[in-house]
Structures are given as C-alpha cells and as structure tokens.
Amino acid sequence: MTFETKANSPLDFDPIQLFRGSTSVPMGFGKIPGTGFSDGRRAIAAIGTADLVRCQGGTESAPGTCPTSSLSCATTVGECSPVLANIPLLCDATTGSGCLQGQTCTQTTGFCVDPTSSQNDGTSSSGPYMVAQNIDLGVRRPSSPAIYDSAFTWPTNKFRNVTSRTVRNFTFTRHLNDYRPGDQYLFIWGRPGFSGEQGRQAQLYLMAQRLPIPTDRSRPR
Questions:
Q1: pTM score, two decimals?
Q2: pLDDT per position as a tens digit, 176-215
Q3: In this structure, what are the phi and psi dihedrals at residue 173, rounded to the nearest 5 degrees?
Q4: How far apart, in Å, are the Cα atoms of 17 and each of 8, 24, 104, 146?
Q5: Contact predicate 78/111, CB 8 Å
Q6: E-strand spans in the chain?
Q7: pLDDT digits over 176-186, tens only?
Q8: What is the DSSP code (8-state) at residue 28?
C-alpha cells in the first residue's frame, strides 16, 4: 500500500482536497472517494462528503424544491443535534427517533428523498435512509495528485455505496457490447447505503455513462 505525501515534506501524508470551482469542500472523517476510474486521459474519483441534499425555498407550511424531478422534499426528515464528528445524522421528525444518546431530533425545512429507493418501506421511519447525497465526480489535477476539481455534483440516494468499471463499448442494448477494459463507457454500481433492516433494503443499482466525463459541472448526458 502506498500513500501520496507532500512534495515539500515527503514523510507527511498529503490528504485529498476537493474543490467546487474555487471553493474548498470540507473533508475529514467519513468524507472519502468511493471509487475511481480513468477516461483514458484523466483520473476521476466519485467522492462522498456527507453533503446531504436539502430542500430549497421551503417553509413550515409549504415544502421546498429539489434539484431533480426524481427527488421530492420530505419535511418529516429531521436532523440530530448536536452534530457529532462533523457527520450529519438524520432522524424521523414525526416520532423523534433515530438519534444517538445526547442528541435531539430537530425539525428542518426538509431533505430531498428518492421515493423509488429500495430503502423506502412506506413508513416515515425510512425517510432518513431515502435522503440523497451530493456525490462529486472529481478530476485529479495533473500537477497535484491529491487535489480534485469537481466536474459536477450528482444528487443521488441509490449510489451512496459505489464501485465502478470502464469498458470499450456499450450500446444500451444486449447486442454489440464489448466489456473488455477500455475508456469509452463507465459503469457505476451502487447501493442506497451499507445496510437494510426492518423492511428496508439496500438493493443494487447500475448506471452507464458515455466517456469522457464533461468538465463544465453539468450533469451526465
């Protein structure tokens, strides 16, 4: 196993940094790349930073909006306070359950959830497990191997636990596909979390994306 070290201090670990434009995204415990791949020219990582997708413009009487039509605003999802280890923990605002000892479930203006997630068991208690997280597809800087620039943020619940593979050709049908290693198409497999219980499931999902990844921070086409 090898680690990237600082150029001016070769015995010191060089931690990963992520930038969205000129803004440095806070990293640390639990905020790491989930998978990495190459499009033939650049090294790219899918980085999770515990950046949960919050509803925008919501009020107590009217739910807010979400960045994609596949997500909906759930005001029944609360947030545990105080935050521990800089990792947000969600809870069921209807019952107040889901927090750790010493925390309290507080009402929020809502989080964006994926109703089609396999974590949905039809009850409000599954809401916190359906919340989407912004995953950054970050492009590594050639001159700074530990620094990544976000090509775009991907709000998703189904791909919070991910792995990937690149192949030579994929037609989005059963015919003329070439699954040998290549740099023309990307497969990402994901699950909505690392566990499922009490009727909730962390089923497996697959996404296919044509390479190269766009670098204008737009969403995949």
A1: 0.89
A2: 999 999 999 999 999 999 998 888 999 999 999 999 977 6
A3: -135, -170
A4: 17, 7, 32, 6
A5: no
A6: 5-6, 9-13, 17-20, 23-25, 32-38, 43-52, 72-74, 77-81, 90-92, 104-106, 111-113, 133-141, 144-156, 161-169, 178-181, 185-191, 205-210
A7: 999 999 999 99
A8: B
